[in-house]
Amino acid sequence: ERVVCSVRHRVMLIHTAAGKCGDRSIMIPVVLIIPSAIRLLQCLRQFADTREPKCLYNAFKYTSAFPVIIISGFRHFIDHDDWVFFWRPLWIGFCVFNTCFSFYWDIKHDWGLSLLGGGAPRRPGEKFPFGLRERRIYGAPKVYYRAIWLNFFLRISWTYKLASHLRHHSAVLWLVTAAEITRRFQWSLFRVEVEY
């Protein structure tokens, strides 16, 4: 988002851009919302083509990021007491909902695991471990259980990236971005496993 802001204001040096593209720039939440908005539109298009309700639930997952980004973006324009007693608890609630719903979606729908419910019940004599599926490429159940926990904690860290009012620590922001890249790479491995 800072790159977009720098280009918009025609400044190339980070210290020059800081005055126009700092933590209080309204461009930060605008740019942060674009990926979720694109995925929302893709899900709605997929629903229009297939009429599968699952597409609407997936669209809702992306929509649930909007309040997190918008409320965070307006943090610097809200009275401190209003922020502390109303908006911050509301923002935290939206963060928790978005994180939990996205985590659930990753595990249940994208990875096809029944750990969080809704999967076919195991019949007596079935050999696959609790919450996993019978067909697994990566073998050992502990690989899946570790991936599930890692996905959960990395989902939580991603909230920091969505919060424009917390973005003044560039080293932490870099670490969170690297963690999200790791999460998405891991996600893709298990997603491909389900599809093929």
Automatic annotation (TrEMBL):
The domain of life is Eukaryota
Sequence ranges assigned to domain EXS in this UniProt record: 19-196
The main location is membrane
Q: Which UniProt keywords apply?
A: Membrane, Transmembrane, Transmembrane helix
Which residues are listed as membrane-spanning? 56-78, 84-105
Q: Where in the cell is it found?
A: Membrane
PROSITE patterns assigned? EXS
Q: How does it sit in the membrane?
A: Multi-pass membrane protein
In the UniProt record, which is one GO cellular component term? membrane
Name-wise, this protein is EXS domain-containing protein
Q: Which organism is it from?
A: Ostreococcus lucimarinus (strain CCE9901)
